[in-house]
Design goal:
Length: about 300
């Protein structure tokens, strides 16, 4: 009983500590946009944790959290994960991100609810794109849907993962993406990238240009993997992917420690995702899925931790 003090997590040199500011009226007071969202549960066949946090830059300047996520289990046992990262220079990108992720489980429930059933990925992504256009019409008070206005003000990346539990404790995973968010498999061997995330040129320079929904790519890449007991599926935005890199540095060590040895509590998971590392101040969203895993108790408070 009493006050529980979570240990601030630093990776290398931390960024400055600051108190978040409320969202500026420039980005509209409604729909309400919380600084942080945390979710998680266990079905007995899979356990999930999810957190979306406003980055330090957005907290300081009073800008909304542009990331969002949904993790949902259907009555059949099929698990749907959707993670979105609103494109930074779009004033209503946070609204586009929320529209996209909330559309995904409704579509899967309507058209592919059964465990193992096929996904029409093109139809799913086109539907998510159109729901952003419709939301732009409502938000901007337009008489007709306007794709150009939606792309200008509401653009967002999107990653969708479908997780189908197996009776042997493993799970089948199929995943696709639009934009530069990422997905990884964490195992004893380390991190394996499942989708490309940000692309680099021949000189190793990473591009910051993002083309997101409602623009739909001509071809979608779909990756299929088997998630074995002891492994963790991670789906996240570039606020996680950029500092994670190959997984060999301090951020990788942090996630191996917190996620690779069991399932943390909801607050411990969010605390880890909110790590402080100098120069990395983007919004962060991370969803983790463990197959056939039992929930472990979170760590108690204490001194701050630093990972290198």
């Amino acid at each position: 009983m009493g006050t529980l003090r979570w240990r601030p997590v630093s990776v290398g040199t931390p960024g400055p500590r600051l108190e978040p500011k409320p969202t500026s009226e420039k980005f509209r007071s409604f729909p309400f946009r919380p600084d942080t969202v945390v979710d998680g549960w266990s079905t007995g066949k899979v356990t999930v944790r999810g957190a979306s946090l406003r980055g330090h830059a957005h907290r300081y300047y009073g800008q909304p959290r542009q990331d969002d996520f949904v993790v949902h289990v259907l009555p059949t046992g099929r698990v749907v994960v959707a993670v979105a990262d609103g494109v930074g220079n779009c004033v209503h990108a946070h609204v586009g991100a929320t529209s996209a992720v909330r559309y995904v489980p409704h579509w899967v429930q309507a058209y592919a609810a059964e465990v193992g059933s096929a996904i029409d990925w093109d139809e799913l992504i086109r539907g998510a794109a159109w729901t952003i256009v419709e939301q732009a019409k409502t938000t901007l008070g337009l008489e007709e849907p306007d794709r150009t206005a939606a792309a200008r003000d509401f653009s967002t990346t999107l990653v969708v993962a479908i997780v189908d539990p197996r009776d042997d404790g493993s799970a089948d995973v199929r995943i696709t993406d639009v934009g530069d968010s990422g997905a990884w498999l964490l195992s004893r061997e380390g991190f394996e990238s499942l989708i490309a995330g940000k692309s680099a040129d021949e000189g190793g320079i990473t591009s910051s240009a993002v083309s997101g929904l409602p623009r739909v790519p001509q071809t979608l890449q779909v990756r299929s993997v088997v998630l074995e007991p002891g492994e963790v599926l991670l789906v996240g935005t570039d606020g996680i992917g950029d500092p994670l890199g190959s997984g060999e540095g301090g951020v990788g060590n942090l996630f191996k420690d917190v996620l690779g040895v069991g399932v943390p509590s909801l607050l411990e998971f969010a605390n880890a995702a909110d790590f402080s590392r100098e120069t990395f101040d983007d919004d962060r969203t991370l969803v983790a899925v463990w197959p056939d895993a039992a929930v472990a108790a979170g760590a108690e408070g204490g001194d701050s931790q630093t990972y290198y």
